[in-house]
Design a protein that fits this description.
Blueprint (H helix, E strand, L loop, with lengths): L3 E2 L9 E7 L2 E10 L1 E6 L2 E4 L3 H13 L4 E2 H9 L7 H15 L3 E2 L1 E6 L2 E6 L2 H4 L1 H14 L3 H13 L12 H27 L3 H14 L4 H13 L3 H19 L5 H11 L7 H4 L22 H14 L15 E6 L6 H11 L8 E5 L11 H11 L11 H12 L5 E7 L2 H4 L10 E6 L4 H7 L2 E4 L5 H12 L5 H14 L3 H13 L4 H11 L13 H6 L7 H10 L6 E2 L1 H8 L3 H13 L4 E3 L3 E3 L2 H14 L2 H26 L23 H24 L3 H18 L2 H13 L5 H17 L3 H17 L3 H17 L3 H18 L2 H17 L3 H17 L3 H17 L3 H17 L3 H17 L3 H17 L3 H21 L1
Parallel strand pairs: 1-7, 10-13, 10-14, 11-12, 12-13
Antiparallel strand pairs: 2-3, 3-4, 4-5, 6-9, 8-9, 15-17, 16-17
Helix pairs in contact: 1-2, 1-3, 5-6, 6-7, 7-9, 8-9, 9-10, 9-11, 10-11, 15-16, 19-20, 19-21, 20-22, 24-26, 24-27, 25-26, 25-28, 28-29, 28-30, 29-30, 30-31, 31-32, 32-33, 32-34, 33-34, 34-35, 34-36, 35-36, 36-37, 36-38, 37-38, 38-39, 38-40, 39-40, 40-41, 41-42
Length: 964
């Protein structure tokens, strides 16, 4: 028995399939009316229950694209998906495969993560795709007669409402979406027939459509035009009056600009509304104003694709894109920082798509961000109308009338209008063409939000070039043949420019004509930075191009922009920026939004704002050139105080039992963050660690010596939790270099600097600093610092392998803490004494001291100390053969350290935990925790610890091999 090839699936109700069978055509049908059936030559194919038929429809709508399994479940069952929905779905798919197995040309295919309905010749197989293909061809065709024929054929595929008889949230939404596509096609057909002068034949049809869609201004305009062409101008004006009264009464608004313009034309009996004069048959004025594509353009694949999608959406009758159907023009507002390549992108895309615009291209540089005054819309309209064949002496002087005439001459045409370098929405709106067939590209450094909101513009943000794109641009300038020294220079240029197109373009232009100057350019950039890209020609000067972005800012916005250039850290948030500027947080947010709209700063995840390094360098130069030194100093003092006081709050949350330091009050205008709990403190510190390091550098530069060591202090707990040991050493080295007349502060700095050296294995240097701290503490009778220093020395001697020396220092610390009546300090020392005793083999004494320390920790709610004591007890129980108890202690310690965000010591506890698991024969669990420890050690850069754990895993795997 021969298989019947299945060649067309229709997704209107009923869904028809046309199957090619030999040399004839066999009509088949899939009906989604309660029971779905596929019939071929009158023979039904059993497609199973209703949900199974819905699966077929859900695949056919998106054919041949992959539909993820989760999306199929959601389409078939919606929010009420059964617990075993996926399993049922697989069963339905399997049955559908069997049902369709006797046909060629259509199949349900499983792919990674989902399924697809694969068919031959998509536009000939599924009539929904056939419908859409016909609509696209109609819109691209320049002949209204042919467009009307194509749209008529497309609409003939419909036989009632789509997907009739199938229920569910997805089906309802899909049916509504398809109905919108159908309505758009009907409207397009009416437009084509009206341009052909068929208004009299359309009056009845459009009257019914206007009654069905009373708020649709496009339908209202078509009905008015049909009445006018039928000699019923009074009725057309009456219909407009009734619609306007209803809009004002119920929505409080007037009709849109397009309908108001049509009303004016009807009132004036504008000859342009007469089909006899719309195409006189003479030669048309076809403007060809588009500049050529830039030769050095490279990359930008996602942005070009986004522009393609915008144009494709405009051709989609359902208006599925952001702008929707019925917008006055297809607008893509291309935005980004000055020099980021907006114009290059627009020109490249436009030149690649010239075939889509048979009626020509209009181009203007609006000079919104250039030397001199921006161009006015009225003068641009005069140029555009002249290019469209309207002589200047026949153009109205009134700006509104000139704009209306421009819309008249662009309605119905497939024109590209490229408005480059726009400064404001007001400059752009009069230049938007009439009708819905033109495409408008607008480039601007401003985001132009009103254009997006009121005119359905589709924003395309232009960012930095990738390293690969930057290299391709320089390769074009330099050529392919070059040595290793040139490669190194190119790599340095790419890194220095950071993907900034204008900087790369200026460099490429210099070396293109003089390749031998490449190394000179690199040396100049190293020495002079941003100023190396300055020039007497403003168009070829990066600082000049960036300066034009400031023209439309207020004085306050320019000041904030300049201050952001000198602020510490890689980026900022509204809270830090408020302290930097001395403003309220709401006012600061408004300024940051304005700078974002001007493309001078960029929003990044977490509510933060960043600058490109070159823009930041320009902002910093602007700050030094325009702001008095006192203003800059006050701003930096405020932001440093913001970081210091907020970090102090976070540190107190992380370790409330730590000794306190007294900070000076923050400067006026500073608003430190109030963090509610430990997770919030950790999250803030994770985000702001780079800013705190930078703030310390700022404090050093301003000789704020106390602030330097205070910042080191508030960072230490967090840096130890996260394993930032090199950063910890750096901040305490800076503190040691500060001028600290206070002896207690100097003692503390030496102690914590010694601790930081010891954590990196630099034991001799560590001991020297600790002995200096101990000598200062003893000389001035500071018993608390003596206790702290002895405790640190005990840990250092442990690192050096001398547990006896370590025990001696721990006992001295214990005596001092008890004399000072510091119970948490006593707990610290008890745990240390017990730990070292156990390491020396006295497990019973060690267990007693660690338990005593644990009790004190718990009495005073010191969770970090409790975790340390539990870790010690885990070690003791493991080494005395009580492995199950050891696992219990380690698990408790691990939970506490994770809750505190102490990833550094949590990795150590994971390492420790693996040993009792292995001793109990629980090798799978030992392997699990050691692998987790290995990952943590590698993430923290603790290579020696990672290598040790790797050997433990290797030995464990070897033991498993021996056992098996």
């Amino acid at each position: 028995m021969n298989r019947l090839p299945l060649s067309c699936i229709a997704l209107v109700s009923p869904l028809s399939l046309v199957c090619a069978h030999g040399e004839g055509v066999v009509t088949a049908r899939v009906v989604l009316l309660g029971e779905v059936a596929v019939r071929i030559d009158g023979r039904s194919v059993d497609l199973g229950p209703a949900k199974q038929r819905c699966v077929l429809a859900a695949l056919a709508v998106d054919a041949p694209r992959l539909v993820p399994a989760d999306r199929l479940v959601a389409r078939v069952w919606g929010a009420d998906a059964p617990r075993r929905g996926r399993k049922t779905l697989y069963s339905y798919l399997s049955r559908l495969r069997r049902a369709l197995s006797g046909t060629d040309g259509v199949a349900v295919v499983g792919r990674s993560g989902g399924y697809a309905l694969v068919v031959d010749r998509l536009d000939q197989v599924i009539d929904l795709h056939r419908f859409r293909e016909l609509c696209v061809r109609a819109r691209e065709h320049g002949d209204d007669v042919e467009a009307a024929r194509l749209l008529t054929e497309a609409l003939a595929l419909w036989r009632g409402s789509a997907l009739t008889g199938v229920n569910g949230a997805w089906v309802d939404a899909e049916r509504d979406r398809l109905e919108q596509e159908r309505l758009a096609a009907r409207n397009d057909l009416s437009d084509a027939r009206l341009r052909l002068g068929h208004g009299a034949r359309l009056v009845v049809e459009l009257a019914a459509r206007a009654a069905e869609h009373p708020w649709d201004e496009r339908v209202a305009g078509q009905y008015m035009l049909a009445l006018h062409q039928n000699g019923r101008t009074a009725d057309a004006l009456a219909h407009y009056r009734r619609l306007r009264e209803r809009l004002v009464a119920e929505l409080g608004t007037d009709p849109g600009a397009a309908l108001r313009e049509l009303h004016r034309q009807v009132l004036a009996a504008d000859p342009a509304l007469s089909p006899a004069t719309t195409d006189p048959g003479g030669p048309r004025a076809v403007p060809l104003q588009l500049p050529s594509a830039p030769a050095l353009f490279t990359g930008r694949v996602p942005e070009l694709a986004e522009l393609d999608r915008a144009l494709a959406t405009s051709d989609d009758p359902a208006g599925h894109g952001d702008g929707g159907a019925g917008t006055t023009a297809v607008i893509s507002a291309i935005g980004g920082t000055g020099g980021v390549g907006k114009t290059w992108l627009a020109l490249t895309w436009a030149n690649r798509n010239l075939h889509r615009f048979p009626d020509g291209q209009l181009f203007v540089d609006l000079r919104g961000f250039s030397p001199g005054d921006p161009k006015q819309a009225t003068e641009v309209l005069a140029d555009f109308l002249s290019a469209l064949g309207v002589e200047r002496d026949r153009q109205p002087a009134d700006p509104d009338a000139r704009a209306a005439l421009y819309r008249t001459h662009t309605t119905g045409k497939r024109l590209l209008v490229l408005l480059d370098n726009a400064a404001s929405v007001e400059q752009v709106v009069p230049l938007l063409p009439g009708g819905g067939s033109c495409t408008v590209l607008i480039t601007s450094r401003h985001r132009l939000p009103a254009l997006l909101a009121r005119h359905g513009a589709r924003p395309v943000r232009v960012g930095l070039l990738t390293d690969a794109e930057a290299r391709a641009l320089l390769d074009t300038a330099l050529g392919a043949a070059r040595g290793a020294d040139v490669e190194r220079a190119v790599a340095e240029l790419i890194a220095w420019c950071g993907g900034f197109p204008l900087a790369l373009g200026l460099i490429a232009a210099r070396v293109r004509s003089h390749p031998d100057l490449l190394h000179d350019v690199v040396a100049e950039l190293r020495e002079h930075g941003l100023h190396a890209l300055d020039s007497d020609d403003p168009e070829a000067s990066l600082p000049a191009v960036l300066s034009w972005s400031l023209r439309h800012l207020t004085e306050r916005q320019r000041e904030v922009f300049a201050l952001l250039g000198v602020a510490p850290g890689p980026d900022t948030d509204p809270h830090a920026a408020a302290s930097l500027t001395g403003s309220s947080t709401p006012d600061t947010r408004a300024v940051l939004r304005a700078l974002t709209d001007a493309s001078l700063i960029t929003p990044v995840p977490g509510g933060r704002y960043a600058m490109h390094d070159l823009v930041r360098a320009y902002a910093g130069a602007t700050a030094h050139a325009t702001l008095p030194a006192a203003v800059r100093r006050a701003a930096l003092d405020r932001v440093v105080d913001f970081y210091l006081h907020t970090a102090h709050t976070a540190d107190r949350l992380l370790d409330p039992h730590r000794e306190t330091i007294r900070l000076a009050p923050p400067a006026p205008g500073v608003r430190p963050r109030q963090l509610p709990d430990v997770p919030a403190a950790l999250a803030w510190l994770d985000t702001h660690h780079p800013h705190l390091l930078a703030a310390q550098h700022t404090a050093i530069a301003h000789r704020r010596h106390e602030t330097v060591w205070h910042l080191a202090w508030v960072l230490t707990t967090f840096q130890r939790h996260r394993g930032h040991r090199h950063d910890e050493l750096a901040v305490w080295r800076a503190a040691a270099d500060a001028e600290l007349p206070d002896l207690a502060a100097r003692t503390l700095v030496h102690r914590l600097l010694g601790d930081a050296h010891a954590a990196l294995g630099q034991h001799e240097v560590a001991v020297a600093h600790l002995h200096e701290a101990l000598a200062l503490a003893e000389r001035h009778g500071n018993h608390a610092q003596q206790a702290h220093t002895h405790h640190t020395l005990s840990w250092v001697w442990e690192q050096r392998g001398d547990d006896r020396q370590a025990l001696e220092h721990a006992r001295r610390a214990l005596t001092l803490y008890r004399a000072l009546d510091q119970p948490v300090g006593e707990a610290v020392a008890l745990n240390a004494v017990g730990w070292y005793a156990a390491r020396l083999g006295d497990h019973d004494s060690g267990r007693a001291d660690c338990r005593a320390g644990l009790a004190l920790y718990r009495r005073h709610h010191d969770l970090a100390g409790e975790a340390a004591a539990l870790d010690s007890l885990g070690y003791i129980e493991h080494h005395t053969g009580h492995h199950r108890q050891a696992v219990h202690h380690y698990r408790e310690a691990l939970a506490l350290r994770r809750a505190l965000g102490n990833t550094n010591q949590a990795a150590d506890t994971l390492d420790n935990l693996g040993h009792p698991h292995a001793a109990l024969g629980e090798r799978a669990r030992a392997r699990e925790v050691w692998r987790e420890a290995l990952v943590s050690y590698r993430e923290q850069g603790r290579n020696a610890d990672a290598e040790r754990v790797r050997r433990q895993l290797r030995d464990l795997d070897g033991l498993d091999d021996t056992t098996t």
